[in-house]
Specification:
The protein has helices at about 10, 125-135, 150-165, 175-180, 205-215, 235-240, 275-285, 300-315, 325-330, 340-345, 350-360, 375-380, 425-435, 460-465, 495-510, 525-540, 545-560, 565-570, 575-585, 595-605; strands at about 115-120, 140-145, 185, 195-200, 225-230, 250, 260-265, 290-295, 395, 400, 415-420, 440, 450-455, 475, 485-490, 515. By secondary structure, the chain is α/β, with parallel strands linked by helices.
């Protein structure tokens, strides 16, 4: 997502397009010298389906254990994968963590011993955070900004953070004092020459960044690396004017740096393997988790986020369920900590809209990343989220004003018959309702029964037609996921309201919360899950990152309970393929097309999160 920094760089952003760019030679000290500072369970597949095209019958659903994507205990993180042609480990130092780092709550545990020099250009929020992290990791830090006042403020801010850590007893005075002494403001870019790594963190303006790279490169050491912390721009485009683009790369940190401890190490088309290896080692020594990413729009995290956010917006646009109901389903059924509309309100709809548009344009109209116009409509109305006190929710003193949950209807006490078209899912429904309501038996539904169907990727209407059932009595239940806490149901346009009330009341008597939605292919959770897995699979297919790095980036930066590929394995690749296939044939929307990488693994029974063979 594009960053806007309050520093002298923003003031130069417009003028750089109109005249030759010159970094001002300024000093904050009368004599030009001194220091300153700132502003996995995988479903087994015994045999592959005969075909998986959108015009054929879907494959049989394999027998599943209790389907749930609730996270398993985390495994020890594997090292990020680099290119297969890297024949040896090129790092000079072992990948050790600093002796003392920032805690997950943002506090300090202490400060590491001295290491090499890191230069940070740009003293906005992100630049300060990177500088603080590097100083805590034992690096000498050189800070520069076009506005000398920003440098002074940055040094002061970083020093205050360490001093507060001492006051709270989180670090000793000596260690904090040593870290503060490592941070130094410099008056011009020539003073950055001792740095082994230069990280620019200025305003997201490609011309300004390109001009800065051209100015800084000549003063750098021969073995130094020049990195950009861009969140949205092409590393190759920024480095286009550099004489040695092989030593340029991206280092995309996430705010807040001390809590979101993952960094996208972005490889440009001309970046050498040695450069990537050195950056991976340094990120690890700072106590962060690196993921190696190719230089593509949105990298991994911002692109992966479109699966949840984009599909949730389309569900709202189609009138399937209101925003708060979608959030409830995502939290209670899929196990997310935060719902998509809560996320959008927190981020700001204006920021989200810019990201949606950029990704769609930069991927040349990729259907999976298509923006949803209702976001622009809300922005035009001034509904930006928390910062405007209203977005998809209203806020009272910063707290979400949540609508009342759906009331439990009076129980019409109608018997229920569960379709056996999908035996494992039918068994789950019958088990959940066992002992609380009469379940009719037999191969055909009695005339007075409510009919429950359990479709995958279909709406209730399509399921009723394909199973030759009376649509007036059909109610669909999303039984793919666990039914122990929350249940999602929907009827056809012809379903008698009494039938929906009967199913709602039955699950309520079984102590389940129920959300009733409008008829929709794939309900809510199936649609969201399938899109998350499809986008993750497409990223692997395009060679953007390894399955392990994609999963690691998404869980650490976005807080998802599972990464996209592990998510797909937990559901079963063939199940995901069937959902996508049915969504495609039901809606005709190309965003539901099945990535070839996913289809092939589903056919042969390979897990999605397993390492992939080298690209040819």
């Amino acid at each position: 997502m594009a960053k806007v920094e309050n520093s002298g760089w923003a003031k130069l952003a417009e003028s750089v397009r109109q005249s030759e760019f010159v970094i001002p030679h300024v000093s904050m000290f009368p004599n030009g010298n001194g220091a300153g500072a700132e502003t996995t369970d995988v479903t087994s597949i015994s045999s592959a389906p005969a075909h998986l095209s959108p015009h054929t019958e879907p494959p049989d659903l394999p027998a599943l254990p209790e389907p749930s994507i609730r996270p398993l205990p985390p495994a020890s993180p594997a090292r990020p994968q680099t290119r297969p042609d890297a024949r040896r480990d090129l790092r000079q130092d072992p990948a050790i963590r600093p002796e003392v780092l920032v805690r997950n709550d943002g506090s300090m545990r202490g400060v590491a011993t001295d290491r090499g020099t890191v230069a940070v250009i740009g003293c906005g929020t992100m630049g300060r955070s990177i500088a603080q992290l590097a100083a805590a990791g034992g690096h000498r830090v050189l800070l520069f900004d076009a506005d000398p006042r920003a440098v002074e403020a940055a040094v002061q801010s970083i020093g205050n953070l360490f001093r507060r850590a001492v006051e709270r007893g989180q670090v000793s005075f000596d260690l904090a004092d040593a870290a503060i002494a490592r941070v130094k403001g410099v008056p011009d870019v020539n003073a950055l020459s001792p740095a082994e790594l230069v990280i620019e963190s200025i305003v997201e303006d490609i011309e300004l960044k390109r001009a800065l790279f051209a100015r800084v490169e000549p003063v750098m050491r021969e073995d130094a690396i020049l990195a950009t912390s861009t969140a949205s721009l092409s590393v190759a485009a920024i480095a286009r004017g550099c004489k040695r683009p092989e030593r340029t790369a991206g280092l995309h940190f996430f705010n807040p740096v001390s809590i979101t401890r993952v960094v996208e190490v972005v490889r440009g088309p001309r970046t050498t393997e040695r450069t990537i290896e050195r950056l991976v080692g340094m990120v690890e020594r700072l106590g962060q988790t690196p993921i190696v990413v190719e230089d593509t729009p949105g990298f991994v995290v911002n692109t992966a986020a479109r699966g949840l956010l984009g599909e949730a917006l389309r569900i709202l646009e189609e009138g399937v369920a209101p925003a708060h109901a979608v959030d409830t389903i995502v939290r209670e059924v899929l196990g997310f900590r935060t719902g998509p509309f809560e996320m959008l309100d927190q981020t700001g709809l204006d920021n989200a809209w810019v990201t949606q548009q950029h990704l769609f344009e930069q991927f040349f109209g990729e259907a999976r990343l298509r923006p949803v116009p209702l976001v622009a409509q809300r922005i035009a109305a001034g509904l930006l989220g928390r910062k405007s006190n209203e977005g998809f929710y209203k806020y009272d003193n910063g707290d979400i004003v949540r609508p009342a949950p759906q009331a439990v209807p009076a129980d019409p006490k109608r018997p229920i018959w569960v379709s056996g078209a999908r035996p494992p899912l039918a068994t789950k429904v019958a088990t959940a309702l066992g002992g609380v309501i009469e379940i009719a038996t037999g191969p055909n539904s009695p005339a007075n029964c409510v009919i429950i169907v359990t479709p995958l990727g279909l709406d209730a209407t399509q399921a009723a037609v394909e199973e030759k059932l009376d649509p007036r009595r059909v109610v669909a239940v999303d039984a793919l996921f666990a039914l122990d806490r929350h249940v999602v149901i929907m009827g056809t346009p012809a379903t008698d309201p009494i039938a929906i009330d009967a199913v709602h009341a039955a699950f309520a008597r079984a102590d389940r919360q129920v959300t009733v939605i409008a008829d929709s292919p794939g309900f809510v959770a199936q649609r969201v899950a399938a899109m998350i897995v499809a986008i993750g699979s497409a990223m692997v297919e395009r060679g953007i990152a390894s399955p392990a790095d994609i999963d690691r980036g998404v869980t650490m930066a976005l807080g998802y309970p599972l990464g996209p590929l592990t998510f797909g394995d937990r559901l079963g690749p063939r199940v995901v393929v069937e959902i996508l296939q049915n969504l495609w044939r039901t809606t005709g929307d190309p965003r539901w097309r099945i990535p070839g990488w996913l289809r092939r693994r589903a056919l042969v029974g390979m897990p999605l999160a397993a390492p992939t063979p080298p690209r040819i």
